């Protein structure tokens, strides 16, 4: 279902533009897992977990996984932080342990192989 809303443009004319689809934290985390192949925990900037039922986040906009040879920190910098300002993210391996920023995404994804 496409939602539309009225907005006033800079020249004070009105226009109908599509509303952005909003999602819960749990849905964003699930979509990242499905697309990227690894689990994440969305955090407040203080480091505390954000409740999964918190709503109002934009949907994860990517449809293809990031390249295997980039690091976790590069993924955070190029994909997560621009999409979710005001939040931090923890990339976790199959055991649920946080992964360091210099770890390649290939290594993180490999930890999930055979765990399905």
Describe the protein's architecture and organization.
The chain is of the alpha+beta class. It has one domain. 26% of the residues lie in helices and 22% in strands. The chain is built from three helices and six strands; from the N terminus they run E-E-E-H-E-E-H-E-H. The strands form three sheets. It has a two-stranded antiparallel sheet with strand order 1-2. Strands 3-5 form a two-stranded antiparallel sheet. A hairpin with a 5-residue loop joins strand 1 and strand 2. The two termini are 32 Å apart. The N terminus is likely disordered.
From the N-terminal CA to the C-terminal CA, the straight-line distance is 32 Å
Strand content: 15-25%
The biggest beta sheet reads: 2 strands, antiparallel
Q: How are the strands ordered across the major sheet?
A: 1-2
Summing up helix and strand content along with how strands pair, one would put the structural category as alpha+beta
Order of helices and strands, N to C? EEEHEEHEH
Shape: globular
Mean pLDDT: 87
Q: Give the radius of gyration.
A: 17 Å
In total, the number of strands is 6
Reconstruct the topology from this structure.
Blueprint (H helix, E strand, L loop, with lengths): L3 E5 L5 E5 L3 E2 L1 H12 L2 E6 L12 E2 L13 H12 L3 E6 L12 H6 L6
Antiparallel strand pairs: 1-2, 3-5, 4-6
Protein traits:
alpha+beta; 116 residues; disordered N terminus; two-stranded antiparallel sheet; 26% helix
